[in-house]
Amino acid sequence: MFHNRLLKNYKHRIKQAKRLNVTCWRLFDRDLPEFPICIEIYEHYIYIAEYNRRHNLTDEEHDAWFAACKRVVAEMTGVPEENMFLRLRKRMSHKEDQYEKEAEVAESKIITVQENGLKFLVNLTDYLDTGLFLDHRLTRQMVQAESKDTNFLNLFSYTSSFSVYAALAGAKSVTSVDLSKTYLAWSEENFKLNGIKPSSAYQFIHADVKQYLKTIPRNFYDLVVMDPPTFSNSKRMKDVLDIQRDHVELINDMLVGMKVGGVLYFSTNFTQFNLDKESIHSKSIRDITRATTPFDFEGKLKRWCFKIIKEV
């Protein structure tokens, strides 16, 4: 059953990946209830995340089940098992820090991958996420197309892949804001990897975005990306962030800092999210979730994306 579904996915997606010159893509994501795993291809490596679940298997039986899964994946993709890296994806409790490092591994595996000719560092071992959100591949291209000569702001910037796209597309200034010094350092490495020399035009700011937005200049930014977590109560934050409760405040504060005609790309992974359009100070709001859904996420995407333009 797993073999047949994986074969169907692989045959369909490998053709599209080659046609689009995409080397990092998602192969499988809980397509079968009996196989609650996510499989992503990163060029010559594979990242497999198992979603935490209750099962009646002993440790030995579970190990045998996972080993059989890996054999099928290796047979299908031609990627050897030693190039596969496994993580257990737990549901995060409200007491956990979203930036917390996973359990220590014997040896970190950090590789360089390319996307549309740009380079990014991917960590296959140390964190729950790899450092490159594959579902935003098309959104990054949209930002790239609109970045030239703009003042660009990347909020909750993570490893700043959007910022790399903007800088290389000719943005006048690029500001990346995140609460994690680890991810900001990772961001700077991504800039170096792409030959972007340090400049006062490129800033990496360690801050709580919710508080930072109260300090930004008015009518300054032309293009903004805001991709917040669903919930965060990190000790480094002054206040708890709940995206359903707080999104109107975040968006309206950002609109104050944008020029008329400026564009905000707002995204969230909260599947039950409901955008409160009536409370947002713009009537130009478009749901672009479908337009930003890559081929390998069709029918499986669990995030929302909106394009909001500041009006007169």
Poorly predicted parts: 91-99
Largest sheet: 7 strands, mixed
Which sequence of strands runs across the widest sheet? 9-8-7-10-13-15-14
- Determine the number of helices (DSSP H or I, runs of at least 4 residues): 7
Q: Looking at this structure, what is the CATH superfamily of the largest domain? A: Vaccinia Virus protein VP39
Shape: globular
Summed over residues and divided by their number, the pLDDT gives a mean of 93
Head-to-tail CA distance between termini: 56 Å
CATH top level class name of the largest domain: Alpha Beta
Order of helices and strands: HEEEHEEEHEHEHEHEEEHEEE
Cα-atom Rg, whole angstroms?
Answer: 20 Å
User: How many independent structural domains?
Assistant: 2
Protein model, in words:
The chain has about 300 residues and is an alpha/beta fold. It folds into two domains: about 1-90, Transcription Regulator spoIIAA (2-Layer Sandwich), CATH 3.30.750.80; about 115-120 and about 130-310, Vaccinia Virus protein VP39 (Rossmann fold, 3-Layer(aba) Sandwich), CATH 3.40.50. Helices cover about 30% and strands about 25% of the residues. It has helices at about 1-20, 60-75, 135-145, 160-170, 180-195, 210, 245-255, and strands spanning about 25-30, 35-40, 45-50, 85-90, 110-115, 120-125, 150-155, 175-180, 200-205, 220-225, 230, 240, 260-270, 285, 305-310. The strands form four sheets. Strands 9-8-7-10-13-15-14 form a seven-stranded mixed sheet, with helices on both faces. The protein has a four-stranded mixed sheet with strand order 1-2-3-4. It has a two-stranded antiparallel sheet with strand order 5-6. Strand 1 (about 25-30) and strand 2 form a beta hairpin. The chain starts with a helix and ends with a strand. Residues about 90-100 have low confidence and may be disordered.
